[in-house]
Write a structure and sequence with these properties.
Layout: H1 3-13, H2 16-21, H3 25-41, H4 47-54, H5 59-68, E1 73-74, E2 81-84, E3 87-88, E4 95-98, E5 101-105, H6 108-118, E6 121-127, E7 134-140, E8 143-148, E9 153-157, E10 173-176, H7 179-186, E11 193-197, H8 198-209
Length: 215
Amino acid sequence: MNISESLERLNSLLPLKARQDGLEPALKELHRNILRSFAATGRPLSRAQIAEQTGVDGVDDALMQLADNDLVVLSDDKQEVTGAYPFTVEERKHRVNVNGQDVYAMCALDALSVAPMCQASTRILSQCHVTDTPVEIQMNAAKVLLAQPEDVHVGIRWQSTSGCAAKNLCMEMVYLKDAMTAQAWQQQDSENISIYALDEAVDFGAAFFNPLLAA
């Protein structure tokens, strides 16, 4: 599956940009500000910060609209933002240092997308889904500066989001330490698994996420 086909498939499952564009302008800007906050501080906007944009009485409605569109993930009590693709405060395998702040990414593809989306330098620390081999990737915008192992690949097991991609689809978007490991993992479910070399995955992630913060 090439990048264009992959992008079409992911947008059919999780159409973030289309959903963002369907919001009222103020709510669209709130979503963008939540993403900017994650990149700048490692945290989403707080309720108090959201209230500055929505008014105190508008916070809950704004959060629910964003969550209903699966643009953000909320805490169990629905009071706080805990994630906004590609970022999450939930501890996951994929840690990203961006602008001097540590934050987690929802999945392997999301981690690769932070640098190009935010036009920033990042350092990703993760591990191979199959072997637990440590993975380190350093990026500046869309350029990979370092990858260890050098032949690291990204794998995606395609599946329905069931209303919240963070809880299912994202769990099966992973790093694989080399082409051989990736091929073996793909053979487990060849009809539903796609494999990408690192440069392909970076291009894919950038094409999916960059529009969310594009002017």
